[in-house]
């Protein structure tokens, strides 16, 4: 059984005859101890405070029966690890070759939840306040003015808390919609249209951070912690 915050994504699952429902990761309407296994892929890095990230993992653990396991993937601060670049960084050159003007892209394959390329946002800043800035860590640069930096896609991270731009390919800007727009390349001027660019919040995890959060819970033990293509991952067992 799948669940997601997005009704549109859940509707797609229904069209494909999968069981899925809409819910919030902080409050899943399933009985405690009723699941043999749970997975959380590219979800927890979207929660903006340490307390909410911990609460999400506690909720995941609540669903598990004793002896049940959970797999968690979050985006890593370290996109270069042990002298190896992640797939996310390597795809930068591929994107440029496919489309020299702009790459509207698609969502990354399931384990990585990456956004499309958007070089026009290199120096942009959001107006959203960042209330829970942490001390400088992982080599991250401190945010200059309490506003979240907008990440340049397919590049290394310079902040743990940031916004990642997402294009809606072929989309149109709705009236009153406060989003940036860029021209999508087309065969002619007439075929080009404005594509909205949305900004999604991410907290990218440093090495050991996800494992430490999981170890703070008495109800689970960490079976395994590892790095996989730009993601930090843990496997938990319910005690």
UniProtKB/TrEMBL annotation:
One of its GO terms (cellular component) is nucleus. InterPro entries: AlkB_tRNA_MeTrf/Diox (IPR051422), Methyltransf_11 (IPR013216), SAM-dependent_MTases_sf (IPR029063). One of its GO terms (biological process) is tRNA wobble uridine modification. One of its GO terms (molecular function) is tRNA (5-carboxymethyluridine(34)-5-O)-methyltransferase activity. Keywords: Methyltransferase, Transferase. Residues 87-124 are annotated as: Disordered. Residues 87-102 have a biased composition (Basic and acidic residues). Residues 1-72 form the Methyltransferase type domain. Gene3D superfamilies: Vaccinia Virus protein VP39. It comes from the Eukaryota. The keyword Transcription does not apply. This is ALKB8 protein. It comes from Pomatorhinus ruficollis (streak-breasted scimitar babbler).
